[in-house]
Amino acid sequence: MIRIMITIRAQQLEALRGRRDKRFSSLLFATFRGLDCFARCGDEELLRRINAGMVRGRSYGLTWERSIATFVGWTLLFGSRFDSHPRIRHLLTLKEVPPDERVALVKEVIPPDEWQKIRALSEDAF
User: Could you report the per-residue pLDDT of 39-61, keeping only the tens digit for each?
Assistant: First the structure.
């Protein structure tokens, strides 16, 4: 049996992550661009906001594409600072719940009328 050891340098790993992120960002862009509620947003602005939402979601430890996509959708629909709402921030930072599972918890706990209040207070929600 022949074993080959491959060493991936941090620089190479970062390049791979960058390509993966770019593909995922493009997929999110295509998804959100197809929704009527984002029609008034220009392509560059929508892509910028998607990328910013991805970074912000990852700052909470999110790694699953589904969780990140949900978080990005929330930033678009309810404003880029929706997560500064005390209840949402609390849920997104619960230590006893794995980060990606916190997104589902937010969905379960925050009622629709509270989301609408968050949206009404936002300056950049769609």
Answer: 888 999 999 999 999 999 999 99
